[in-house]
């Protein structure tokens, strides 16, 4: 008999809303089992869904950060026995497949089409057509609704503004309407599967819930996201997520009230679908019976270091703690978490902190939680309030998928280039340094050999998460620096100032403002091999970005325009750089990689000679020219 899996994730779904006036949700729940106390280990989409599909804690699989290596997901286990279909807003993830393999093996309908169908008034007809076309074959369907994250389209206003004005009812009405839109899709699915439930395992769940200020009596502060407070919240409305299991041998009209770890879902699915797990995982299969379930401590571990470590204990207590606060709640007596018992129960607090610390001591985290895309920003910036609206309107984390590979780039990691920049600084042990656009901090880490007072700013939390722990990092824009006048001895930026476009003059003057008198300002940039080849040099780039300057002379003029003194210029080349290294670690699209390589192959003979173009097997080697300019603040 066929054992088909339909796994539906509804982003932002709160448990307390799904049975209000719904039909589809109720149909599946009445004919299946509802998990009332399922707890996500990470209230963030990629990490949560990655745990569903691997049975591993988020800090191990790091879904959405790395391609899975030596990790098997449910897609890997079923790839030889099931036809796959995926409809999701995000690029497919969750297995060791490459993007090309996803396109080959999945019936994935593509991000653009999913973007349309996963918004308001979603359309799951492609999935229903797929089920109908493959009704005599085993299928794995993954469907991810982002509909609930579109409530601002209904409100025509930002949720945080409405919260501040106390207009909570409008938010809740819009939230309920988006749930009803999803519910109508579930009704359609029910009409397809209801007569063949013995052939399907249907999972309807959430990656995380949602927390709205005031409505939940929370004072969470601004996270910079109008509607998504889940990333910064460890309260029940964000981590206690609903799950309905229906079909196959699942008990009907049953509610499981014991607390269940999210890591236990994957092995439970494996047991129901009858495939063997051949690698060690963190979860254990459960029996869908309250009398059989042994509750275990649950760690919410999306964040690292001491940022909101959370433990939900089997005895009903829950601890959330950080360096500057501790919260203890009795979930059995106070399910709304209204009374903080931390001061009244210090022994219980210490007991749970010891348990959390033991767990987290074995966790492999980076400096800060890499996926802490929003929740950690306040801690990274001293001028958060000034920047929040600007961050709201700008996708600041385009580097998210490039961060892990960034240091592999020859142009980034070249010791020659790094040393040349450091030599231009003339440092001593008391030097105070600021790097603009620090990225992963590879240069600043080198500078720690000379001074321990190194700071860096960037607009990417993902990049900042990878910097050395000894470097002080701040989330900030180059033209709005969170520092006092006359603070630093040296300020520098590599491959950053050309991106600033209309903000260049302001950014340079901001650097000058926080630079001490007689302090040094440095810009390092890749440049054309000579000024005659500027246009061709620009045309060979991956993205035809609008650059403020291209030539060495244009960069130097920035220093003259800002009235820096003692301007010194230096240029050199990184010999025999690999084009494949650049493309493989920077360009995500195979199509773009092919196009860029073809442009290099078709370059003029004059250009090829200027960069010492060499063909080596399937690679192209060439010289990368760079320039370093420094000036002194008068």
Report on this structure.
The chain has 26 helices and 20 strands. With 634 residues, it is of the alpha/beta class. It folds into 2 domains: 4-293, Alkaline Phosphatase, subunit A (3-Layer(aba) Sandwich); 377-632, 3-Layer(aba) Sandwich (Rossmann fold). Strands 1, 2, 3, 4, 5, 6, 7 and 8 form an 8-stranded mixed sheet that branches. Strands 13, 14, 15, 16, 17, 18, 19 and 20 form an 8-stranded mixed sheet that branches. Strands 9-10-11-12 form a 4-stranded antiparallel sheet, with helices on one face. It is globular. 44% of the residues are buried.
Strand content: 15-25%
What's the CATH superfamily of the largest domain, by name? Answer: Alkaline Phosphatase, subunit A
User: Given the structure, what is the number of helices?
Assistant: 26
Average pLDDT number: 84
CATH level-1 class of the largest domain? Alpha Beta
Outline the secondary-structure elements:
Blueprint: E1 4-10, H1 24-30, E2 32-39, H2 45-54, H3 58-61, H4 74-78, E3 83-87, H5 99-105, H6 111-117, H7 125-133, E4 139-145, H8 151-155, H9 159-164, H10 168-193, E5 200-205, H11 236-239, E6 240-247, E7 254-256, E8 260-261, H12 265-273, E9 298-300, E10 309-312, E11 317-322, E12 325-330, H13 346-360, H14 377-380, H15 384-392, H16 403-406, H17 410-413, H18 415-423, E13 432-436, H19 442-447, E14 453-458, H20 461-464, E15 472-475, E16 488-494, H21 504-514, E17 515-526, H22 534-539, H23 552-561, E18 565-578, H24 579-586, H25 590-601, H26 605-610, E19 614-616, E20 619-632
Parallel strand pairs: 1-4, 1-5, 2-7, 2-8, 3-4, 13-14, 13-16, 14-15, 16-17
Antiparallel strand pairs: 2-6, 5-6, 9-10, 10-11, 11-12, 17-20, 18-20, 19-20
Helix pairs in contact: 1-10
């Amino acid at each position: 008999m066929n054992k088909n899996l339909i796994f539906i994730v509804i982003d932002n779904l709160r448990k307390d809303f799904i049975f209000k006036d719904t039909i589809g949700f109720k149909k599946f729940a009445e004919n299946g089992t509802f998990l009332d106390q399922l707890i996500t280990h990470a209230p963030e989409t990629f990490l949560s869904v990655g745990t569903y599909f691997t049975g591993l804690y988020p800090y191990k699989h790091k879904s959405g950060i790395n391609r899975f290596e030596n990790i098997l997901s449910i897609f890997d286990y079923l790839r030889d026995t099931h036809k796959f279909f995926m409809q999701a807003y995000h690029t497919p993830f969750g297995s060791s497949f490459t993007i090309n393999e996803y396109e080959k093996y999945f019936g994935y309908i593509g991000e653009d089409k999913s973007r349309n169908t996963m918004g308001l008034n979603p359309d799951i007809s492609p999935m229903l057509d797929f089920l109908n076309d493959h009704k005599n074959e085993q299928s794995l369907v993954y469907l991810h609704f982002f509909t609930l994250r579109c409530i601002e389209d209904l409100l025509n206003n930002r949720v945080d503004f409405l919260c501040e004005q106390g207009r909570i009812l409008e938010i809740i009405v819009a939230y309920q309407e988006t749930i009803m839109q999803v519910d109508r899709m579930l009704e359609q699915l029910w009409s397809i599967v209801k007569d063949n439930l013995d052939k399907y395992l249907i999972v309807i769940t959430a990656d995380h819930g949602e927390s709205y200020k005031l409505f939940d009596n929370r004072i969470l502060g601004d996270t910079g996201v109008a509607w998504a407070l889940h990333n910064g919240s460890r309260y029940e409305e964000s981590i206690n997520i609903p799950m309905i299991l229906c079909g196959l041998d699942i008990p009907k009209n049953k509610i499981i009230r014991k607390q269940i770890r999210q890591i236990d879902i994957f092995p439970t699915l494996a047991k129901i679908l009858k495939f063997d797990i051949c690698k060690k995982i963190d979860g254990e299969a459960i029996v869908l019976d309250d009398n059989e379930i042994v509750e275990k401590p649950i760690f919410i571990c999306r964040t690292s270091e001491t940022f909101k470590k959370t433990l939900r204990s089997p005895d009903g207590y829950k601890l959330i703690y950080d360096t500057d606060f501790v919260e203890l709640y009795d979930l059995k007596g106070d399910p709304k978490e209204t009374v903080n018992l931390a001061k009244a129960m210090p022994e219980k607090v210490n007991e749970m902190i010891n348990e959390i610390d033991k767990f987290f001591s074995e966790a492999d985290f980076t400096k800060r939680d890499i996926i802490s895309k929003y929740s950690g920003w306040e801690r990274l910036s001293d001028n958060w309030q000034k920047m929040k609206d600007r961050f709201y309107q700008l996708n600041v984390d385009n580097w998210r998928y490039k961060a892990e590979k960034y240091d592999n780039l020859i142009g980034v990691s070249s010791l020659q280039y790094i040393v040349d920049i450091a030599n231009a600084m003339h440092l001593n042990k008391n030097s105070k340094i600021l790097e603009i656009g620090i990225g992963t901090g590879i240069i600043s880490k080198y500078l720690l050999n000379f001074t321990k007072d190194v700071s860096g700013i960037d607009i990417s939390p993902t990049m900042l998460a990878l910097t050395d722990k000894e470097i002080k990092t701040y989330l900030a824009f180059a033209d709005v620096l969170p520092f006092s006048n006359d603070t630093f001895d040296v300020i520098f930026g590599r491959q950053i100032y050309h991106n600033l476009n209309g903000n260049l003059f302001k950014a340079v003057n901001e650097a000058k403002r926080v630079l001490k008198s007689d302090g040094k300002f440095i810009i390092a940039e890749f440049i054309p091999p000579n000024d005659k080849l500027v246009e061709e040099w620009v045309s060979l780039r991956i993205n035809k970005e609008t650059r403020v300057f291209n030539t060495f002379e244009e960069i130097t003029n920035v220093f003259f325009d800002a009235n820096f003194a003692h301007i010194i210029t230096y240029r050199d080349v990184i010999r025999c750089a690999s084009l494949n290294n650049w493309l493989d670690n920077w360009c995500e699209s195979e199509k773009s990689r092919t196009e860029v390589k073809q442009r290099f192959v078709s370059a003029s003979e004059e250009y090829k000679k200027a960069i010492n173009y060499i063909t080596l097997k399937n690679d192209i080697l060439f010289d990368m020219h760079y320039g370093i300019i420094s000036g002194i603040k008068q």
